[in-house]
Amino acid sequence: SVGREGPSVQVGAAVMLSWGNFCRKYNFAFRGLSTNELVATGAAGGLAAAFNAPLAGVIFAIEELGRGVMLRWERRVLLGVLAAGFILVAIQGNSPYFPAYKGATAIPYLYLWLAICGVVCGVLGGIFGRLLAKGLAGLSPLKWRDWIRKHPIYVALLLGLVLAAMGTYSEGQTYGTGYNVVARALEGQLVSPEVGILKLFATVTTYWNGIAGGIFTPSLTTGAGIGTMLWEISNGMVDQRFLVILCMAAFLAGGTQSPVTASVVVMEMTGAQPVLIWLLISSIIASIISRQFSPKPFYHFAAGRFRQRMQEQQAEDLRRNEIQEK
Description:
The chain is mainly α. It has helices at 5-25, 35-51, 54-65, 75-92, 110-139, 142-150, 152-169, 179-186, 195-208, 216-233, 240-256, 259-270, 276-290, 298-325. α11 crosses α13 (276-290).
């Protein structure tokens, strides 16, 4: 259960950094851009290209990549992100990633449903982010943790069996990005209400295995499943497609705690400009609720943990070198 935007972001960052360093070495271009700015431009450009969403790439760079990092948002950085998105549009055409949204733009008791979607997705998104951040070892009893850390292959086997069981039960709907589930839900077709919860745990299980991939698209699929579940609970009193698109944005916002990015990503991926304000409201509610379960945004928690590991490894290597020299 993985998305393609994770590798796209990483590859985009690596390519832009290498290209920028090459150009600066030969005094060709990018002389005024720092390493952070090159990485941010490439990473956000990778997201824009993955989803055919240039504006979402810019918002992602400002809201997510720029959080807690010293970045000077020069026009060249933003133009670089937009260029990546527009180049993809020129190659593949200006069509949304998902089927275009054709549902309602307002429903009865609108603000009540905005709050319900925001709260439910905020709780589940916060749990999702916490599960990803803590990892299997962090959530296991203390006596099991050493065994889990020392036997990653056995752990991967067991988690793989769990993932296969969920995939078999859902008839394959928890595998991959979940594109077909979202497409059917956005077109008003029937989707199993339990798919959203299964997709949440399938994504967590995949991530715990250490498999490379993004969580954006699986999160959107989870949100679509939650929206379908709420529609079933309401006994069909509102437009299913409206609840689906609200929960797509809200769950992504809950998982990443980046409400503006989540709203704009969903808007661009579905061509749902008329409901952007409602997406934003639900996403902000979900982001606030999510912080009660996972105080630190998942991406920044993971980055801090990775940085700590690298520092510990460098300190260990330095200690070994000193011992060898003696």
